[in-house]
Amino acid sequence: MKNILFVASECVPFIKTGGLADVVGSLPKCLDKEYYDVRVIIPKYSSIKDKFKEQMTYITNFYMDLNWREQYVGIFELEYEGIKFYFIDNEEHFSGDRPYAGMPWDLEKFAFFSKAALSILPVIDFRPDVIHCHDWQTGLIPVYLNERFQGNEFFRGIKTVMTIHNLKFQGIWDMKTIKSITGLSDYYFTPDKLEFRSDASLLKGGLVYANAITTVSNTYAEEIKTPFFGEGLDGLMRARANDLRGIVNGIDYDDYNPETDDKLVANYNINNFRHEKVKNKTALQKELGLTVDPKVMMIGVVSRLTDQKGFDLIAYMMDEMCQDSIQLVVLGTGEAKHENMFRYFAWKYGGKVSANIYYSDELSHKIYASADAFLMPSLFEPCGLSQLMSLRYGTIPIVRETGGLKDTVQPYNEYEGTGTGFSFANYNAHEMLGTIRYAERIFYDKKRDWNKIVDRAMAVDYSWSNSAKQYQELYDWLLG
Ligand code: GLC
Questions:
Q1: If pLDDT is split at 50, 70 and 90, which confidence band does 42 have?
Q2: Does some domain include residue 261?
Q3: Which domain covers residue 322, as residue numbers?
Q4: pLDDT over 70 for what percent of the chain?
Q5: Which distant-in-sequence residues (6+ apart) come within 8 Å of 10 by Cβ?
Q6: Is residue 215 one of the residues assigned to a domain?
Q7: Best mutation site among 17, 164, 213, 385 for ligand 1, i.e. most ligand atoms within 8 A of its Cβ?
Q8: Whose CA is nearest to atom 3 of ligand 1?
Q9: Does the pLDDT at position 85 exceed 90?
Q10: Ligand 1 centre and the CA of 215: distance in Å?
């Protein structure tokens, strides 16, 4: 039996702001239970729903030294769908209505979390063989493990994996503050360690000290070795190329299953989608106040509304797109400029555009099931999960060929009758529009061909089974 510990800042169903939470919530369940005892540590945010907090059991508490003071560490436990979760409690750090408060507050929060995650291990009596860290919030774990915990027999020899879900976020702040907060000595603040352009980067620390690095698609693993995608760490990524691999994300095939999804008006599968899927569309049109028309092509967008996702291309083309016979349904929150852009167009094109500027798991499922196509023109995309959910629901992705989008959506080839979606290469608004219009032509003029794309999309397998095996191989390789 090998012990694997996941540490992350978010995890479905407890707390979610993005795809990271889906991965941390679904991958542990898919690792082979006969060979791996997988447990997960996340913060006990006050924004976690009461129904989960009520199920947690209090274990114990102690005080831990960080940032020149003794800080409270409480430990709670909850077993959920066969996995043991530990929640680290500290009201000063984890209160508020959201998990993140921005810099510099999040710095001390996650330095605390990283050190606490290591400190509780002897207390809960779980010695991991591998600690699997996710994104910058846990970047200090491999560093602390190298620094102070190695002196302790319990920690000696623990291996670490650092998974990059998004290199853009690194936890960068001025060196002096980070030195003071983390308590790490000057030794750690040189350009080959945490120093980053005369500041310091917590993620960089993790990437230097982890035994292995992964990211969430093959293409992104290559892209981050180049300056454009490397966010200043492309040199480090090249230097560690032998320890870096891409493992594409999967999605939870039980949660995302059009045949059993209880959020849908009409369930369907690969055999009956031709008649059943559209019932979801007309119901959603009614619900959202769009023109009710089973024949119109509905395009979905479910996303964090950030620059990464290509919303400037959409903004630029909205007026033109809305001259066509389409409907656009948007769901998500994020930067005010993107939120307001969609609100504006929903006002301007009432029956055609619906802007839902909030977070809703329920509405997201309805959109995946109702829409005919799903638009994701990302500037960069480490993996992307929405296109995988769309494929599963027979909703045809229209994507830009970057990162995981390139790896998971096979472009339609009308001559060979292959492909599961539509894609374009350059970050260019006209190229995007051209591709959307090509999809419209197939949808309206060649319905049989469109339905065959849907057939192929619903048949591809992006459950975790394949990728979970690759993580297992990685753990086994590390443990020699
Ligand atoms: C981040 C990335 C996204 C990826 C997700 C899960 O949100 O932006 O591309 O799918 O993490 O790995």
A1: very high
A2: no
A3: 273-461
A4: 100
A5: 16, 17, 18, 20, 21, 24, 42, 99
A6: yes
A7: 385
A8: 384
A9: yes
A10: 9
